[in-house]
Write a structure and sequence with these properties.
215 residues; mainly beta; Protein Transport Mog1p, Chain A; globular
Length: 215
């Protein structure tokens, strides 16, 4: 599923993030992504789409696509897709005083190895990342190597797992369209108890419509 809104000449500049006085060298989230407690959310705000546990930015540069489990009909991930690349977003519950990213990283690396791919660790703006490469089958039946970069961003009782594809995976830019949009994401943890490591629920917004088949 995908949805969005058209940009008009009257639209204000949505590229600015909430102001912060945090030291970026000690706080990887000094410019986002945000916890819902860290910013003011106005009712009827059209700059982000409410997907339950994630509020994601919508603008003229990116499509917001939903990955839906065909069996259950549940939304399992959100994809911000642009001309040069994309980012898949999944939010998970985490303990109040702890970080589950190390364990998630190890599990993902093991899964990649089972698929015959490779996964290596590197350091990025949010800490340790995974550089992944797997072989996938294309629509024409041929097989090709698909690189990706997996980032774990820890917040208050949550982990946002971001998988970058295309240019953001190979040549990350601080002011890139996908990278900027990821920083503008808001995680709504909520007060409902969720076991650490379980996915935070995503909901289908009313304005969602079926995505066109890929070219």
């Amino acid at each position: 599923m995908r949805f969005g809104r058209k940009r008009t000449d009257d639209d204000p500049d949505r590229s600015e993030s909430p102001e912060t006085t945090a030291d970026e060298s000690s706080d990887p989230r000094a410019r986002g992504p945000w916890d819902s407690s860290e910013i003011t959310l106005e009712e009827g705000d059209e700059t982000r789409v409410d997907l339950g546990s994630l509020l994601v930015p919508v603008n003229h540069e990116l499509d917001v696509q939903l990955q839906v489990d065909e069996a259950s009909g549940e939304v399992i991930a959100v994809v911000l897709a642009g001309e040069t690349g994309a980012a898949e977003l999944r939010a998970f519950a985490a303990p109040r005083n702890g970080d589950i990213w190390e364990g998630v990283r190890a599990s993902m690396a093991a899964e990649v190895a089972q698929l015959g791919g490779t996964a290596s660790e590197s350091e990025g703006p949010y800490g340790t990342e995974l550089q992944v490469s797997v072989v996938v089958e294309l629509e024409d039946g041929t097989r090709a190597e698909q690189p990706s970069r997996v980032v774990g961003i820890a917040g208050p009782r949550w982990l946002l797992r971001v998988t970058m594809f295309g240019r953001p995976a190979l040549q990350p830019l601080e002011d890139g369209d996908v990278e900027t949009a990821v920083r503008d994401v808001v995680v709504v943890r909520g007060g409902t108890p969720v076991p650490p490591g379980d996915a935070l629920p995503l909901t289908m917004p009313p304005q969602a419509r079926p995505a066109a088949p890929p070219a």
